[in-house]
Amino acid sequence: MANPSLLILPGDGIGPEVMSEVRKVIDWFAQNRGRAFDVSEDLVGGAAYDKHGTPLTDETMAAAQAADAVLLGAVGGPKYDDLDFSVKPERGLLRLRKEMDLFANLRPAQCFDALSDFSSLKPEIVAGLDIMIVRELTSGIYFGEPRGIVQEGNERVGINTQRYTESEIARVARAAFELARRRGNRVCSMEKANVMESGVLWRQVVTEVHQADYADVELSHMYADAGAMQLVRAPKQFDVIVTDNLFGDLLSDAAAMLTGSLGMLPSASLGAVMENGRPKALYEPVHGSAPDIAGQGKANPIACILSFAMALRYSFDAGEDAALLEKAVETVLADGVRTGDLMQGGDGTPVSTAQMGDAIVAALSRG
Ligand code: NAD
Ligand code: IPM
Ligand code: MN
């Protein structure tokens, strides 16, 4: 049987740097665990714009649709800030999410024991933290119409529209309940039903789906602003959080810092399950292209490497291999190996991106 296919889109800034380390991990699994992929690589974001004048060509879009899984680094950077909206690097990523219909974005926030001292919160508040944010990814204010900047009388008006259909809410709610059943069996849904009609509908539909099919899962609701507060006050109260596209973007960045660094957080963006039993899927770190440290070998590759672990688990039914990789990351952190983002001023010398990748591969080999 042919190997499963993996499309790699390194992107911009630190994207290619962290992706090089993932390639080492992919090679290790091929050589040592007989888990080979047909890997191809292509451009996305600013890199694609520089070459083709578009952040995602139709050919790359088609390759992503055809791949068994897509692995993306990061897109964007100051060089592209003044580009027209339609060709900005970020549009490439948004097009992938939309056209692949990747409606469920899983953003786990787990605090590794070795890093509990490093979080900006007290160690006892984050030690053992293991939550999963499920962010709706293909609708809401990111895609709603009307949108634009228009002239009204003598001033300009910026317009975006929050819009959710009940089927969009129901399918992401189902994804959250299904995940909860395999974890702590609790879902907290966050919206602003106190001020937004889309929030009222969100709460109603989540409740209906719960009553119809998931009454065994514990469901609670929270306004998203209160949820943000609770996330930093007592994050361990949560198991699965389900929320919309914009709130999920903000809450997952906040959750990332609970774990110590944005450089630690992976994500999986999943769509419908296809005939071959695999979901449409794109895996990427939560962080961006980090222009402030790009090109210096300082980036932490762990978020991207853990995104590959999520691919093993969710696309390739290789939970055991995913766990091996996660354990290797844990070992390396416990050994005190740290990129700069995981250190406070004055405590030792940070390792480079490549050294972190090498350390993780060495830990895999040690078993
Ligand atoms: P960012 O995530 O790129 O960086 C925020 C801060 O975190 C920076 O100080 C950066 O150095 C640090 N950081 C991020 N990842 C790190 C890592 N792996 N190792 C060490 N430090 C890390 O967010 P930003 O600065 O707001 O955005 C920069 C660009 O990235 C923008 O163009 C934005 O649109 C884009 N972006 C892309 C994605 C994506 O591709 N999924 C996500 C977020 C932002
Ligand atoms: C993320 C990013 C993206 C988002 C941007 C780059 C389009 O911030 O993946 O969290 O806003 O969704
Ligand atoms: Mn974001």
UniProtKB/TrEMBL annotation:
NAD(+) binds at residues 77-90, 288-300. PROSITE patterns: IDH_IMDH. It comes from Profundibacterium mesophilum KAUST100406-0324. Mg(2+) binds at D225, D249, D253. Substrate binds at R97, R107, R135, D225. It is an enzyme of class 1 (oxidoreductase). Pfam families: Iso_dh. One of its GO terms (biological process) is L-leucine biosynthetic process. Its main location: cytoplasm. InterPro entries: IsoCit/isopropylmalate_DH_CS, IsoPropMal-DH-like_dom, Isopropylmalate_DH. Homodimer. Belongs to the isocitrate and isopropylmalate dehydrogenases family. LeuB type 1 subfamily. Residues 5-360 form the Isopropylmalate dehydrogenase-like domain. This is 3-isopropylmalate dehydrogenase. It is found in: Cytoplasm. Pathway: Amino-acid biosynthesis; L-leucine biosynthesis; L-leucine from 3-methyl-2-oxobutanoate: step 3/4. Its cofactor is Mg(2+); Mn(2+). GO terms for molecular function: 3-isopropylmalate dehydrogenase activity; magnesium ion binding; NAD binding. The lineage of its organism: Bacteria, Pseudomonadati, Pseudomonadota, Alphaproteobacteria, Rhodobacterales. It comes from the Bacteria. The record marks Y142, K192 as: Important for catalysis.
